């Protein structure tokens, strides 16, 4: 009996160390419950299988795609397109957003044009990019870059404009050059807003990917969606949607981990366990 109490006591002592892992696992509760409910509804005939396949059938479709090697070709193509488009769009947004944030004159010239371009739907760019750039990889990457540009640009511009003016005045008082002012004061102070924009841009990059892969694509998750629609295979459509959701979540988690590391100096409110 004493040995049992000792084991229980040690387990209770280690429980606080497991709390972060348990918190992470809570995010799986709702998806798993929905999958189980969907499986029951389809198997019992409440939902028609030809319109909403059971999760087990979708899993089988993914397994067959992976076994044939087709899945990895589609994933590789989509990852390269999103990576290239996001990197180009975010880099341009950081450069131009910093310039516009520092210069009222640049804002007066560029801001109206950017606001008009931001309102154009992604699919409206497709025919124009086909006419200008052909049907190879270039128009696909450009379209994703367009989707990634505006969230980063707007967030960075707002972050720079919300910086305390006294910080800038202190930097100028110490004789910092414009480049040093940006590197040592403006960008570090605007980092929280920048990361918010980057995470929004990454999500939009995955959304724009589907529109991009409608441009004469023969590989990619967007192509899988289109192929499933044309061949009346809802299991293929849902498999592609789940892959897009999974990749979007994984890439956002990586960016969030980078944000946490880069902003570890902040002592910000993280929310309470009991809610409001």
UniProtKB/TrEMBL annotation:
Signal peptide: none annotated. Residues 71-255 form the ABC transmembrane type-1 domain. It is a multi-pass membrane protein. It comes from the Bacteria. Belongs to the binding-protein-dependent transport system permease family. The chain crosses the membrane at residues 28-46, 79-102, 114-135, 141-160, 204-224, 236-255. This is Sulfonate transport system permease protein. One of its GO terms (cellular component) is plasma membrane. Pfam families: BPD_transp_1 (PF00528). It is found in: Cell membrane. PROSITE patterns: ABC_TM1. Keywords: Cell membrane, Membrane, Transmembrane, Transmembrane helix, Transport. The keyword Metal-binding does not apply. The lineage of its organism: Bacteria, Pseudomonadati, Pseudomonadota, Gammaproteobacteria, Pseudomonadales. GO terms for biological process: alkanesulfonate transmembrane transport; cellular response to sulfur starvation. Its main location: membrane. It comes from Ectopseudomonas guguanensis.
